[in-house]
Amino acid sequence: MSEDSRKLLIVEDDPGLLKQLQWCFEDYDVFTAGDRKSAIAELRRHEPMVVLQDLGLPPNPEGVEEGLATLSGILKLAPHTKVIVVTGNGDQENALTSVAQGAYDFYEKPVDTDTLKLLVDRAFNMYELEAENRRLQHQVNESPLDGIIAASEGMLAVCRMIEKVAPTDVTTLLLGESGTGKELLARALHRLSPRSEKNFVAINCAAIPENLLESELFGHEKGAFTGAHKQAIGKVELAEGGTLFLDEIGDMPMSLQAKMLRFLQERVIERVGGREEISVDVRVVCATNQDPQDLIAAHVGGMDTCARALLAAAAMIEDGGMDAALAERYSGWETPQARAMLDGEIGLEEIAARVAKEGIEPEPHSGCQEMLENLVNRFV
Predict the structure, then answer these.
(1) Most exposed of 38, 124, 311, 357 (fewest Cβ within 10 Å)?
(2) What is the extent of the structural domain holding 201?
(3) How many Cα atoms occupy the beta-carbon half-sphere of 156 within 13 Å?
(4) 50 phi, psi to nearest 5 deg
(5) C-alpha separations of 264 from 11, 252, 310 in Å
(6) In the chain, what are the helix, strand and coil shares in percent, each to the nearest 5?
(7) Is the pLDDT of residue 271 over 80?
């Protein structure tokens, strides 16, 4: 920290001594006060790091009561401030009393500017070291992601996965019980992504009636149905350039599966009552409190077909495995999304070799094309 940014408050009622001290510390950002009231006012206004204070202050400059009260008031308002008290010659008893009440150090008159400057410099250094220590301690204790409190190894692993996945553009599936903070994780993904300056649009698929959900998601044209008096933009288009969060996608109606699957795979939609295909650029984050594998096996809910695509997305947060055998078999098949993520730096063949070398166990797959394509993206 430069000396110009070091704020020093001098509390002294003797005009001659005050002028001498101002000259001594002209390299610092100096503020002055002559009594307790003005000292407290300057402390509130400028928040100095170090205070150089005379114990003898008006209305009783011969005593120390007002000086000790000023010291107490300063430390009550700013406990981290370093206060150096200046006492009369031989007044060690009051100096020690000041230190016992929280003063950083003391100095006996008459004033030697070189010695006093050394004390003040040391006080500034100590303040800065303690401030840095508090900052580092705060970093250790805080969660890796804003808004998320994480202390257990499991949650910290989830946070690390979020940080790893966020910079990519791949569809993400969040699994967890209701009330465990899936939307907070989705918002964290958005904040850490290159799309953070654009919209984050959330929709709860379970909270909207089935007959309104399609219009809510994809929008509708004027006259598409009774009451559609004008064109309406859906949530998907509102999220253009940003992130779309589909909460409780496991409760999505079966009738929307085909249209949703097309959107997830191709990023193309049609408004209700429309004929025009609309390309959209959105990052999709889905969440459910149900087990997708169970829904696929039972062939129920909106997660039947969609889950086959979502299950292999790059960020199924509870899963850290990879299908090494499948990736090795399809290493020559470069999907557009995989190629965009690789950005020409390394080939899929090299990635397949690396993962296969690590001995990652293959996971089962149904063999459908959507899952194969997503597995390659996830593999990258």
Answers:
(1) 357
(2) 153-320
(3) 7
(4) -130, 140
(5) 68, 14, 9
(6) 45, 15, 40
(7) yes
Give the three-state DSSP class for 121.
helix
Where among 85, 111, 141 does a domain terminate? 141
How far does Cα 219 stand from its chain's mean position? 32
What CA–CA distance (Å, rounded) separates 86 from 55? Answer: 6
- What is the chain's Cα-based Rg? 33
**Dihedral sign of CA atoms 187, 191, 195, 199 in order:** positive
Contacts of 159 (CB under 8 A, 6+ apart): 143, 144, 145, 148, 150, 188
Instruction: Please report, for the domain that includes residue 13, its CATH number.
Output: 3.40.50.2300
Burial class (CB in 10 A: 0-12, 13-18, 19+), 58: exposed
| Domain total of the chain | 2
CB count within 10 Å of CB 315 equals 20
pLDDT in tens, 340-376: 444 445 555 555 555 455 444 444 444 444 555 555 5
CA distance 99 to 87: 12
**Residue 265's pLDDT is what?**
82
Helix (H, G, I), strand (E, B) or coil at 31: strand
Q: Do 100 and 135 belong together in one domain? A: yes
Do residues 213 and 65 both lie within one domain?
no
CA distances, 347 to each of 167, 213, 373 (Å): 20, 41, 16
Separation CA 249–CA 204 (nearest Å): 8
> Facing residues of 31 across strands?
9
Give the position of tokens 């909460």.
Answer: 247
- What region does 344 belong to: left with phi over 0, alpha with psi -120 to 50, or beta? left
DSSP code, position 220: B
CB under 8 Å to 114, separation ≥6 — which residues? none
Q: Is residue 255 part of a domain?
A: yes
Model pLDDT for residues 279-317, shown as the tens digit of each residue: 999 999 988 888 777 766 665 544 444 554 454 443 455
